[in-house]
């Protein structure tokens, strides 16, 4: 169950809601926004009726959630979440673009310093993460000097420290980390915006549940990322427009579409870009 407090509700009203939740043997999860506080009742919500909470002082509304994801659901918050990074608003209607090329003059750049070929025989030597971390620090410093925003792809939990110490503005978790609960809980304890991508093998339900795990640990700055799903027509990956549309309908979080590596043999890049926008993507990596 989700309880939405009135605008600028005071602490005594919040504590009364929390006490009511605990009296029934459930636990609470409190999400504090700039204007409103949202309280989630975690556990078997069948012990409650929504009117019990709506009668309490300074409660705007209460609702039972039908999905496994709750805090990020549209039922909990109808308006689109807008995440602001160095003055750039992500979400809320205006499409923003991120370049995958570090030499681009776009305002936001996605760096992938820890990328290595999956084939071990393609490596001339082992990945030198120390050198990669040093180069990352230099690249981010250069971007910040040019008033650009640095997005950093994290491929392992060991890369988080390097990304944060280099002052990355946004952390980008690839689909291979969707089921890694350790890293989801770790980024959930941060105050840094994070993109959680859906892997080609996971459903959009798994995707939303991963985002919910991050938010439950306190990080409200979460972006849902779609970077391709399995194709029926021979191309390695295709844009999952259904997942983007479902995410926009079911969640208030911003949605990103990464089309930089997608192989559409019969579709020009410009058409793929329009397809991502039509599906509802708030941010597009090109």
From TrEMBL:
Gene3D superfamilies named in the record: Aldolase class I, Phospho-2-dehydro-3-deoxyheptonate aldolase, domain 1
Keyword Transferase: yes
This protein's UniProt keywords: Transferase
Origin: domain of life: Bacteria
InterPro entries: Aldolase_TIM, Class-I_DAHP_synthase, DAHP1/KDSA, DAHP_snth_FXD
Start and end residues of each DAHP synthase ferredoxin-like domain: 1-66
Transmembrane feature ranges: none
UniProt cross-references to PANTHER family, sorted A to Z: CARBOXYSOME FORMATION PROTEIN (PTHR43018:SF3), PHOSPHO-2-DEHYDRO-3-DEOXYHEPTONATE ALDOLASE (PTHR43018)
Name by which UniProt lists this protein: 3-deoxy-D-arabinoheptulosonate-7-phosphate synthase
Organism: Alysiella filiformis DSM 16848
